[in-house]
Amino acid sequence: MVIEEARVLQHAVCKGPYRVLELHSPALVRSVVPGQFVHLQIPNVPGAVLRRPFSVFRTNGERFSILYKPVGRGTEALARVGTNVTLSVMGPLGNGFPLDTGDSFPVFVAGGYGVAPLYLLAQRLPRKGMVFIGGATADDILCEEDFRFLSWPVRVATEDGSQGERGLVTDALDAWLDGNGRRDRVTFFACGPDGLLRGVGDRAGQVGSRAWLSLDRHMGCGLGACLACVVRVQDREGSESWKRVCRDGPVFEAREIVWD
């Protein structure tokens, strides 16, 4: 982990309200694993002392990018940051996705900007798989062409039918699993809202597969000291305990998580 002042190299609209922020941080890029995150200090937010967590989206040489949507005071202030500004960055933090799926076929399921850690994973995995991307509208479908450029087939679903299939992304996943998807042993990787993660975990259990889920929680310190981001888990014997999403996650195997 490093804490450094990273210079903003580029800040641009990705699609709809979503934005991509690119920063220069050689030390962070050298050590990051797909699924890890950075804790960013956002300037010009009166009264705010806590950093904000963002998944690492892309790496390129000594640069890394985050993908985000302005939804509150912090991210709206971040959207006003220009190039050549320096931001305090802490990371990479947490535990990422496993990079070896053995002989199983990798299947990604993402909702909205949940594509961010999965895109970096697609770049690093030795075997190509299948990507399912869902969102409420076409504006929420991100990185479809980026995955296709990596030669990963993509299925898209939107709740209003404005892009791809109409319905939830898990509906598209079910149709695939009921067809040619059942020919292969699969490993699921998912990032998005809790409902999507729970649905992917349920389906993994039904087909006897493993599912690695990236959880999104409000965080205080990002280091595991404040216990603001705990999640209930269970071991193989069914004993329950608590783990910290920032330090023990954000990636967990689906069978660990006890959903409320």
Describe this entry's structure for a reader.
- The chain is α/β, with parallel strands linked by helices.
- It has two domains: 2-93, Translation factors (Elongation Factor Tu (Ef-tu), domain 3), CATH 2.40.30.10; 105-214, Rossmann fold (3-Layer(aba) Sandwich), CATH 3.40.50.80.
- 20% of the residues lie in helices and 35% in strands.
- It has six helices and 16 strands.
- It has helices at 26-31, 73-78, 115-124, 144-149, 169-178, 194-206, and strands spanning 2-15, 18-24, 37-40, 52-55, 58-60, 63-68, 86-93, 105-111, 130-135, 154-158, 165-166, 186-191, 210-214, 230-234, 240-244, 251-253.
- The strands form three sheets. The protein has a seven-stranded antiparallel β-sheet with strand order 4-3-7-1-2-6-5. A seven-stranded mixed β-sheet has the order 11-10-9-8-12-13-16, sandwiched between helices.
- The longest helix has 13 residues, at 194-206.
- The radius of gyration is 18 Å and the shape is globular.
- It starts with a strand and ends in a 7-residue tail after the last strand.
- The model has no long low-confidence stretch (mean pLDDT 93).
